Amino acid sequence: MKRSLVSLLAVFVLSATVLAGCDKGYDQNGVERSATEESVNLAEKKVGVCIYQFSDTFMSLYREELGKALVDSGFSKDNIMFFDGFNDPDLQISQVRRMIDEGVDVLIVNPVSSASAEAITDIAVEADVPLIYINREPAATDEARWEENEWNVTYIGCDARQSGMYQGEIISDLGMSIVDTNGDGVIQYMMIEGDPENIDSQFRTKYSVEMLSDAGFKMECVSDEIGYFHRDTANQIMGKALAEGSHLEVVFCNNDAMALGVMDALGNSDKKAGKDIFIVGVDGLEEALQRIIDGGLAGTVFNDYAQQAISTAEAAKKFVSGESNDHYIACRYIKVTAENADKILEEIKE
């Protein structure tokens, strides 16, 4: 009888130990969850997402991937709110206030402008709601405040200077003998900027040309236009330049949508993209990648929205679990030319 009681006691202790192990919890990969993660039910947490403009092709792709990544991380689809800022900074600020009033546990903001980010930061910090900026980097002065005050604010994205440099490299790699179609020893170019107040636009505009100049290319800016990241606007800009008879050898576009708009305009002219005029963009949209493969677009710079969406979801999970994030979570661009466009396109379609 005594031996039976000892055996039962041993079984009870073993069972308690196993149950304790189950209580502690493991994720789907068998990795033990932290005590903080275990105490938080992500499905009950509210996530507020502000996108500067739903009609932006790149941000539409990003938004779709972000929704998937948040759900895959454990957040409930019913507790994720997406708002369209309609490229209006005042509207976006009011949306941030509304989400805070509705009790969101974390904010994810793709700011309409870098200038409005400071106000959004102040609103989030005052409400004690963690804030994640995506894709459009706030001003350096605002980022400095996050670090100095140890606020729960972070930025997830790439360094736009790198994308500008890659654009310059794409043209440089083609060589002066190919790009200088009139043989005058100078590259005549047009710059189509996205938004002059956007830091990414500023960096892409500056470093694309600076890279070529540093490489020894003589440059002449024929025209510097604002396309607001819109395909139709870039189409109109390029159509006007062609109608005026402007000699252009290179067109730098701050994003792929505008690069495709330029190609649309060339399709209605006697100029051929990739032969008479060389066009570069940024983002790595499927259509742009296919145009590179087909020989029309000179190149682009791939901005991996899927990986950035995953990083954003991971940062949101840490914030609502009471953990901190680095104030800058960086990613890297990928230079895309005819040599690797098919590989990038295949990865996107998977």
From TrEMBL:
PANTHER family: D-GALACTOSE_METHYL-GALACTOSIDE BINDING PERIPLASMIC PROTEIN MGLB, D-XYLOSE-BINDING PERIPLASMIC PROTEIN. Coiled coil: none annotated. Its main location: other. It comes from the Bacteria. This is Sugar ABC transporter substrate-binding protein. It is found in: Cell envelope. It comes from Butyrivibrio hungatei. Residues 1-20 form the signal peptide. One of its GO terms (molecular function) is carbohydrate binding.
